[in-house]
Amino acid sequence: MASSSWLVLCVAVLYASALAHGQCHESQRSLLLLLKHDFNTTHWGNKIKSWGPTQDCCGWAGVTCTNGYVTGLDLSGEGIEAVLNDSSPLFELRYLTTLNLKNNLFGATTIPPSFAKLGNLVHLNLSAAGFVGQIPIEISTLTRLETLDITAPYFFGLKVDNPNLSTLVGNMPNLVKLRLSYVDLSTQSSDWCQVLSSSAPHLQLLDLSNTGLSGPIHPSLGKLKSLSTIDLSSNSFSEPFPSFLSNFRNLTYLNLADSVSGKFSGSVLQLPALRYLDLSGNYGLGPGDFPSTIRNSSLETLILRSAPFSKNIPDSIGQLRMLSKLDISECHLVGEIPKSLSQLTRLVSVDMSSNSLTGLIPTFSQARSLRELDLRYNQLQGSLLSTDWKQLSHLEVLQLSSNSLSGSIPTALFGIPTLQQALLSENHFTGFTKDSITPSSQLHVLYINENELRGEFPSFIFGLRGLRELDLSNNNFGATLHLNSLQRLKDLTSLYLSHSNLVVEMGPGTPSFPLLKSLRLASCGLKSIPIFLKNHSAIEDVDLSENQITGQVPSWIWDIGTLTSLDLSHNHLESVETTNAVIWFDYVDLSFNRLHGYLPAFAKTSMGLRVSNNQFNSTISSVVGHSNAGFAVLNISRSNLYGSIPESICNMSISFSLDLSDNFLTGDIPECLLNIRHLNLKGNNLSGILPDTLPSPCSLETVDISGNSLHGSIPKSLGNCGELEVLDLSYNKLENAIPYELGLVSTQRIKAINVSHNELTGPIPTSFGNLTLLESLDLADNKLSGSIPEQLASLTFLSYFNVSNNQLVGRIPKGSQFRKFTQASFEGNKGLCGYPLKKKC
Ligand SMILES: *[C@@H]1O[C@H](CO)[C@@H](O)[C@H](O)[C@H]1NC(C)=O
Ligand SMILES: *[C@@H]1O[C@H](CO)[C@@H](O)[C@H](O)[C@H]1NC(C)=O
Ligand SMILES: *[C@@H]1O[C@H](CO)[C@@H](O)[C@H](O)[C@H]1NC(C)=O
Ligand SMILES: *[C@@H]1O[C@H](CO)[C@@H](O)[C@H](O)[C@H]1NC(C)=O
Ligand SMILES: *[C@@H]1O[C@H](CO)[C@@H](O)[C@H](O)[C@H]1NC(C)=O
Ligand SMILES: *[C@@H]1O[C@H](CO)[C@@H](O)[C@H](O)[C@H]1NC(C)=O
Ligand SMILES: *[C@@H]1O[C@H](CO)[C@@H](O)[C@H](O)[C@H]1NC(C)=O
Ligand SMILES: *[C@@H]1O[C@H](CO)[C@@H](O)[C@H](O)[C@H]1NC(C)=O
Ligand SMILES: *[C@@H]1O[C@H](CO)[C@@H](O)[C@H](O)[C@H]1NC(C)=O
Ligand SMILES: *[C@@H]1O[C@H](CO)[C@@H](O)[C@H](O)[C@H]1NC(C)=O
Ligand SMILES: *[C@@H]1O[C@H](CO)[C@@H](O)[C@H](O)[C@H]1NC(C)=O
Ligand SMILES: *[C@@H]1O[C@H](CO)[C@@H](O)[C@H](O)[C@H]1NC(C)=O
User: Fold this and answer.
1) Measured from the CB, is residue 267 less than 6 Å from ligand 12?
2) Predicted TM-score (pTM) above 0.90
3) From the CB of 36, is ligand 1 less than 6 Å away?
């Protein structure tokens, strides 16, 4: 008994191996070996590599046989780089019914016409195979095809032009799956729908995404009742919205993103089989009819981002019981979020951000699988307490910023072990509930800035050990925080506590936060610069403004190699410790302190230095003279500077703005300063004349040199300053006529001209009538003569006008704008008459 069963087994094994051995026809085997030889260039796959040692080619990787003939060949993902030409042994494998060459690199050649020799093919997959150019007519002879996939990974040069689509698929009556994504079909007329519906009646899968199709989608497509997958995304179809799609009872997947317009038709939501619908990015969609009852929906994914499908969120959305992903962001939605949404128990990801939704947030307590909830940028109100957050044990991302939410933030949220990001900024939250929790160790981003938090600093934060970014700025705690209570937050990269009515205390135990990049502690009652910054090796940006820091700016601060931006403004600093270092920071703000003495040398790359409102009591040269800097911005206003502006300032190549206003500077204005975009020298005692050498084009945008002792003429070359917006030369001793050229500044951006309180003579230039955007013109207290030009009456934006105390004569123009000016604008001119003056003409 035992031996006979052993015999049976033995025979069976022998028989099986003999059969396998004999299966492969020798001709097929040698063709495959030739193929292997041809493809023996670079390829990263393992299938072809393994061919050979065993006799039976039917057992080789990727090879399928029927009766010893190769009928299936799957060389997908082999990364073959050879050139596939018409003499390839591949085209001798005449029994092939399935050929998959997906993901190869057939050297940017066209598809070889020899594919026509493979007349038995039923499934042909050439997606991302590396072919380019026109798809050859020979493909159209493969009349048995059920699957044709020539998808490119991106626009790669594949196209269907001549032969056209009609010729290509016209003889493939069995076609079930057609994918031509990223093949250029832009020359095909809009009758591609008729072509497909008449030639491929059994089509189930159609992917013509990214093919450059345009025109409306013709209703004849509706004849293809078997379609279950349609991807026509990223084309530019015109109206109307293809509502006939609701005929496809078997449709499970529909992607029309970035492709359709017209009035949205919700009937497609009634399709019982539909599981995936993407209409995102269709900005031209008009709100349409969303069905009020939806029965037996299978919809799992609904993506309508940036597709204004409706004015409100329809209540019936709650009937999409299978929904797991919902994206209706940027849809101009108004009104409330319907309560019915709470019935969607399978939700995983919800995005309703950037709408104008109002009212309360419905409870999400039933959506136990919820991972992401994004309601940012709406006008939602009320508290967060309607949801039992403890239940949402999969929540990863909660984004509620920029709403009007209020009340206490449920502390339970921060005990959800999976939570990674909580963005609650820009609301009206006042505090936290008192639940006791085990703080999540996954949470790495917590933003509750711009709220109304008050009371004790929330202690659960001390336990959020994974925290990297913490922003609690702009709140109203009224409490004290010892920075060493944050010692467990070793991964912090940004810590923002500015303006939150917190007194931040630092002691000997203050941790160094080794990964910290950005520290913002403005208005935190600091008495000194945190010593942990010394020798810090990651910090990039520090804001310690509006504190009570006294004494010296320590020289070690310039030695922090990673630091690029430092704000110590609004403190009580008195000097900057001398250093030999050259400062490479991009941005330094030391304004509003009590600094005197010298500043360190800044390197050519420094972008901005703001040191206004200090008490240097010295000359510009001694404050910044030894800098070899190239500031974009230099501001030393109101700092008790005296002496002249040194020519060496020209070496700082200040490009964007220079503010030396309200000092005691005397002497001439160096010519180079008239190349700066924003120049403010007001309130000094600068004398001399303004050089008439402004280049064309000139870069001045705003110029204020009022309140000095300038004399001479207003430069004619200001007419070159096409970007000029504001010109204030008032309260000087300028003489002669206002140049006609000032009215010719080329792009006419100018909004305000003030040359009042000078000694100007001559007429008001008629060219001022050209300054069509002028809002304010002050010529008061000069010695101007002549009449007010009629041309000024056409300045429709002019809202301030003053020519008082001059020597003007004649009738005041009657323009509509002039009717708004009062007597004060004109008084002190003996010769003026007409409204609003009492004197008649
Ligand atoms: C493939 O090429 C390698 C070297 O590039 C060579 O060693 C090997 O013999 C070749 N195989 C065939 C089947 O030609
Ligand atoms: C086709 O390619 C093979 C190998 O890649 C090459 O040896 C042959 O010369 C090519 N034939 C033609 C007609 O280009
Ligand atoms: C082509 O082959 C790839 C990889 O095997 C597959 O993902 C894709 O669905 C195939 N195309 C069709 C239309 O079946
Ligand atoms: C496609 O091309 C064929 C042959 O050139 C032509 O007869 C036919 O009208 C074209 N079809 C369409 C829809 O352009
Ligand atoms: C829809 O699918 C069902 C089940 O797969 C099938 O029996 C039916 O023929 C399909 N309908 C059409 C129009 O293809
Ligand atoms: C909904 O599904 C139920 C059960 O599968 C079925 O009895 C009912 O007819 C369906 N209703 C509709 C409108 O399809
Ligand atoms: C800090 O920097 C100083 C001077 O640059 C150096 O002497 C000291 O060793 C550094 N300390 C640490 C802990 O790196
Ligand atoms: C600078 O001068 C002002 C008066 O001009 C004086 O009040 C102030 O004490 C001086 N500051 C220093 C630091 O010398
Ligand atoms: C210079 O600083 C003062 C004080 O901070 C500020 O008011 C002024 O606008 C600044 N000037 C420029 C050009 O930014
Ligand atoms: C500007 O810099 C150049 C070269 O560094 C120097 O020769 C020249 O004297 C400087 N000019 C002024 C006005 O400091
Ligand atoms: C301005 O400078 C002139 C000399 O250029 C001097 O006479 C005058 O007193 C100064 N005015 C003020 C307010 O310092
Ligand atoms: C500017 O105004 C003068 C006087 O009104 C007029 O002759 C001239 O054509 C205007 N120039 C432009 C560029 O508008």
Assistant:
1) no
2) no
3) yes
